[in-house]
């Protein structure tokens, strides 16, 4: 946890120097990160949202990959119990 906090603090200090135009100092302070050719799941989600908002739905769907039956979450379990196969449920809580 301490390592994560150190990285966060270094990034914030580097961002401060970068905003002030001190690019060399910011580069020296910023922690080195590994660059991967394959985006993480979180990156894929954000990219898919951007494509969907731009109207490029096929690319958004391709990024998220095919839906597999083995990832059976709460939605499909409730739908099956109600006899609603293939129907996506949306639910939430409203606090007044």
Secondary-structure element string: HHHHH
Estimate the global geometry from the Cα principal axes.
elongated
Rg calc: 21 Å
Q: What kind of sheet is the major sheet?
A: none
Low-confidence stretches: none
**Average pLDDT across residues?**
78
Structural class of the secondary elements? mainly alpha
Please count the beta strands (DSSP E, at least 2 residues each): 0
The helix content is 55-70%
Total helical segments: 5
- How far apart the termini lie comes to 37 Å
Q: Per DSSP, what share of the residues sits in E-state strands of 2 or more residues?
A: under 5%
List the helices and strands and how they pair.
Layout: H1 2-19, H2 23-29, H3 41-53, H4 57-64, H5 74-81
Helix pairs in contact: 1-2, 3-4
Please describe what this structure looks like:
The chain has helices at residues 2-19, 23-29, 41-53, 57-64, 74-81. It is built from five helices and no strands. α3 (41-53) packs antiparallel against α4. The two termini are 37 Å apart. The chain has a domain at 1-33. With 96 residues, it is mainly alpha-helical.
